[in-house]
Specification:
- One of its GO terms (molecular function) is DNA binding.
- This protein is mostly helical.
- The protein has two domains: 87 residues, Multidrug-efflux Transporter Regulator, Chain: A, Domain 2 (Orthogonal Bundle), CATH 1.10.1660.10; 67 residues, no CATH class.
- It has eight helices and five strands, in the order βααββααααββαα.
- The strands form two sheets. The protein has a three-stranded antiparallel β-sheet. Strands 4-5 form a two-stranded antiparallel ribbon.
- Strand 4 and strand 5 form a beta hairpin.
- Helix 3 crosses helix 5 and helix 4 crosses helix 5.
């Protein structure tokens, strides 16, 4: 006899339905506070239909999309449990909304990168003006379009751009480390 779609499920039923070991479900309860099965005498767990949909969404993001537990926790913080439950139920509108948000994030990041100062621009770091990187590294005036001239210490435009990106990535890492300390 099958249960109604609105009926509560035991941990063994949920584990079987989602092809997960029971201990994984118990572990996920400790990592995702949004999973709150009812507990009866003796600690028996009963999962509501919305709990099962949320677990399906979490499973989908972890196993099918390669997210980490921290990544799924961040998704839950930013979008709420209803979002992951929608993914678990296969709601394409929710998935499309997530894709649109990610696309917007990428576009915003590209705009930020485009607005960063160039290597030849003098930068203000704290209260001090910083010399352009090419002068800092002892490089002469580079040709704007030419390749690296052997023995002249000049960088091509592409190499300068790569160096600039690496520099900003290192500065961002330093900023993050300083926040943690």
């Amino acid at each position: 006899m099958d249960k109604s779609p609105d009926a509560f499920r035991t941990i063994s039923e949920v584990a079987e339905q989602l092809d997960l070991p029971q201990h994984v479900l118990r572990f996920w309860e400790t990592r995702f506070t949004q999973i709150k099965p009812m507990k009866r005498g003796g600690g028996r767990r009963y999962y509501r239909p919305q709990d099962v949909e949320l677990i399906k969404g979490i499973r989908h993001m972890l196993y099918d999309h390669g997210y980490t537990i921290k990544g799924v926790q961040k998704l839950l913080r930013e979008n709420g449990p209803q979002f992951l439950a929608s993914i678990g139920s296969g709601d394409m509108a929710a998935i499309e909304a997530m894709a649109q948000r990610k696309l917007q994030e990428v576009e915003d990041a590209a705009q930020v990168a485009a607005s960063r100062p160039k290597l030849d621009d003098e930068m203000l770091v704290g209260q001090a003006k910083v010399k352009p990187a090419r002068r800092f590294f002892g490089l002469g005036r580079p040709d704007e379009d030419g390749p690296v001239q052997e023995g002249e210490g000049r960088l091509s435009r592409d190499n300068r751009a790569l160096l600039q990106e690496a520099l900003f990535d290192l500065l961002e890492c330093k900023r993050l480390l300083d926040q943690v300390r």
